[in-house]
Amino acid sequence: MAGSIRVTMEVGADGVAVVTICNPPVNALHPIIIQGLKEKYAEAMDRDDVKAIVLTGAGGKFCGGFDINVFTEVHKTGNLSLMPDVSVELVSNLIEGGKKPSVAAIQGLALGGGLELTMGCHARISTPEAQLGLPELTLGIIPGFGGTQRLPRLVGLPKAIEMMLQSKFIKAKEGKERGLVDALCSPDDLHQGCLDVVEEGVLFGGRAGVLKEAKVFKELVLSPTSKALVHAFFGQRLTTKVPGVTDVQLKPRKIRKVAVIGGGLMGSGIATALLVSNTSVVLKEVNPQFLQRGQKMIAANLEGLVKRGSLTKDKMNKAMSLLKGALDYSDFKDVDMVIEAVIEKIHLKQSIFSDIEKVCPPHCILATNTSTINLNVVGEKTNCQDRIIGAHFFSPAHIMPLLEIVRTEKTSPQAILDLITVGKMIKKVPVVVGNCTGFAVNRTFFPYTQGSHLLVSIGIDVFRIDRVISSFGMPMGPFQLQDLAGYGVALAVKDIYVSAFGTRNFDSDLVDLMVANGRQGKSNGKGYYIYEKGGRPKPDPSVQLVIDEYRRHAKMMPGGKPVTLTDQDILEMIFFPVVNEACRVMDENVVIRASDLDIASILGMGFPKYRGGLVFWADTIGAPYIHSKLSKWAEIYGDFFKPSSYLEERAKRSLPLSAPTTTQQASTRSRM
Ligand SMILES: C[C@H](O)CC(=O)SCCNC(=O)CCNC(=O)[C@H](O)C(C)(C)COP(=O)(O)OP(=O)(O)OC[C@H]1O[C@@H](n2cnc3c(N)ncnc32)[C@H](O)[C@@H]1OP(=O)(O)O
C-alpha cells in the first residue's frame, strides 16, 4: 500500500517545484502523505534552485480530504495523537508562512482537508468543473486544517457558512466568481496557468483562529456523532461490495433500455429516475387513460426536479424524449431490463412474468418492485428464475436514495451485478438483501408501527409518541408516517405479516377503525392529523373518539387505566422490538453485514444518520440492556417483545450485535 501512497516533487529548470499527492483513488491525506508533504515542503524551502511551489494531485483529482480511515482508528483507540499536526505545522507554517510562494493546481475535486491545503497556498488555479467544498460536518466534525478561518476570508461569511453548514460543494467556475479560485484553465494549461498566477502576486492570510479551530476539531473527532457519521460513510460504500458478485471478475453489462410495467406512483417514479440518468424507458400500461396518467406523473416529477433546481429545462426535455408509452409488449423485444411495478396481486404478477419471459431477449433482467411478495412465488411460472430479481424502490422513487436489491437462491450473480450498476447509475444506494417477507427494511421495521399501536392501546397519547420519535431524530413519528403512506398499505400487508411472523405480531384494529370513521390519512386530509392545503399537519383532537373505541376493543389497559411511561420507555418500546427483528434479519443472513442494515435504515426509513444506523445505535446501548428490557415487557405484553435467540446469545456473551455471524465469517474466510 505504502508504494502507491506517496508525495513526489519535481523541480523544473524554471525554478518551480511541482509537489504531487499520490494516493488513489481520491488522494486522501493519509499520515504518509502528510509526512511526505512536510518533507517535500521543507526540502523546497531549503533548495536554492526552487523559487516557487505548485501543489497538485495525481490522476486528475486534487484531494478528497483527510483520510477518514484515520478517524476510524481514533474512534477505536481514543488516541488523538494518530492525527498528525497539519493545521499549524504544514498549512500555516510551511505552506502559508513559507518564504516561497505556493500555488494550488486543482483538478477534479478539492474537498475537506484538500481544499484547506489549497487555501493555505498563496493562490489557487483550477479547471472549471472541479468540485470544491468543506463537507466535514457530514462526518460530525468541523474543518480542522484552517478552513473555518480561510474560507470566510476568501468567499465572505455568508457563502462560507452556507458551504460549511450545508456541506455544499461548488464548482470552481463559481469559486472564481466568489474569490476562492484565482484563475480557471483547462486541464492541459493547468501547469502554465499556475506560473502565470505566481507572477501575478500572492495573497497572505493571518493565523488568527487557527489554534481555536484545532482545539474544537479535536473535541469533535472523539464525539459519538463523528463516530456514527464516519461509520455511515464507510457503511454506504460497503453496500456495493457483494461477495460472490463483485469480487469474481464479472463485468456489468450495459443497460440501455428499460421497460417499466405500471405507470402508478411507483412505476412513474422509477421511470423518472431512469430517464434523468439518460436511460430509454418504455412505460407499459393496460389502457390509454392509465398510460396518459403515468406519462403526466412523470412529466410532473421532472418539472418538480426543475423547480427544486436539480434538473435543467434542457435535461428535462431530453428525459421526456427518452420516454415511450406502450399498451402491449411489442417494444419489449430489445429491452435490457424490465421493472414490474403493478399492484401487489400475486396472480397478476405471475402472469406478467410468464408473458415477459416470452417476449424479452434472453439476457433481459426481469425485476419486480414488490415490497412484500416472495420472489420465488412471483417467478414460479417462468423458466428463467436466474434472471428474476427484486428492485425495491422507496416512494417517491425518483427522490428516495435507497434501492433494495432482492436476490433469491436462484438469481444469477450477473443479474445482481447489473442491477447494482443500474442502481449506481441512477444515483441510488443499492443494498443487496435476501428474499423474505418484507425483505430487509419493511421486515425490520414491521414492529415499528405495531409497537406504536401497542403503546396507544395501553393508554399512551398518539401525539406524544410522535413527538418522542421525532425528537429522537426520525423525520416524523409513526402515526404521521402512517397518515402519509396511506392506510391502504397498512391494511394490505397486515395479513401477510400475520402469516409470516405469527405470534410476534401485535394485532391492532386501529387502522380499520380509522377507515370505518371516514379517515384515510393525508390522502383525504383526515387522519391522526388534519391536513389543510399548504399548511403543516395539525393534531386532530377528534381522533380521540376513535382511539377510545380502539382501547375499549384492545382491553390492554390494566384496570382500564392508562399505563404511565417515561419518554425513554416509549422510545425503547418502539425501537427495541425493531432491533430484535434486525437481529433475526442478521441471523438469517438476509443482509450481508450489519452495516448494510444501518444504511438501509438511514436511507429507507430516515433513521438518524448521526446515530450511525439502527444496529450501530443498538450497539451503543448494548445487547444485555436491550435483552433485559424486552424480556420484562414480554412477560407483561406477550410475544411481540420476546427476545430472539440471536439477541439472547449476544446478550449472554456481551457481544456486539454487529459482530459477523458464523456464516458471514465463514464466507469471508472461504474467499481469502
Ligand atoms: C481536517 C479536515 O478538515 C478533515 C477532513 O478532511 S475530513 C474529509 C473530508 N472529505 C470528505 O468528506 C469527502 C469524502 N469523500 C466523498 O465525499 C466521496 O468519496 C468523493 C466525492 C470524494 C468521491 O466520490 P465517488 O467518486 O462517488 O467515490 P466513492 O465511492 O465515494 O469513493 C471512492 C473510494 O475512496 C474512498 N474515499 C473517498 N474519500 C475518502 C477520504 N477522505 N478518506 C479515505 N477514503 C476516502 C472511499 O471510501 C472509496 O473507497 P472504496 O473504493 O474502498 O469503497
Automatic annotation (TrEMBL):
List locations, semicolon-separated: Peroxisome
Recorded hits in InterPro entries, A to Z, give: 3-OHacyl-CoA_DH_CS, 3-OHacyl-CoA_DH_NAD-bd, 3HC_DH_C, Enoyl-CoA_hyd/isom_CS, Enoyl-CoA_hydra/iso
Q: Please give the catalytic activity noted in the UniProt record.
A: a (3S)-3-hydroxyacyl-CoA = a (2E)-enoyl-CoA + H2O; a (3E)-enoyl-CoA = a 4-saturated (2E)-enoyl-CoA; a 4-saturated-(3S)-3-hydroxyacyl-CoA = a (3E)-enoyl-CoA + H2O; a (3Z)-enoyl-CoA = a 4-saturated (2E)-enoyl-CoA
- Occurrences of domain 3-hydroxyacyl-CoA dehydrogenase C-terminal (ranges): 438-531
Q: Which UniProt keywords apply?
A: Fatty acid metabolism, Isomerase, Lipid metabolism, Lyase, Multifunctional enzyme, Oxidoreductase, Peroxisome
Classify the source by domain of life. Eukaryota
Q: Which Pfam families match?
A: 3HCDH, 3HCDH_N, ECH_1
Q: Which GO terms describe its molecular function?
A: (3S)-3-hydroxyacyl-CoA dehydrogenase (NAD+) activity; 3-hydroxybutyryl-CoA epimerase activity; delta(3)-delta(2)-enoyl-CoA isomerase activity; enoyl-CoA hydratase activity; NAD+ binding
One GO BP annotation of this record: fatty acid beta-oxidation
Pathway listed for it is:
Lipid metabolism; fatty acid beta-oxidation
Entry's Gene Ontology cellular component terms? peroxisome
**Which chain positions lie within coiled-coil regions?**
none
In terms of one coarse class, where is the protein primarily found? other
In this protein, which residues make up the domain named 3-hydroxyacyl-CoA dehydrogenase NAD binding? 257-435
| Quaternary structure annotation from Swiss-Prot or TrEMBL | Monomer.
Q: Which family does it belong to?
A: In the N-terminal section; belongs to the enoyl-CoA hydratase/isomerase family.
Its protein name is 3-hydroxyacyl-CoA dehydrogenase
* Species the sequence originates in: Zizania palustris
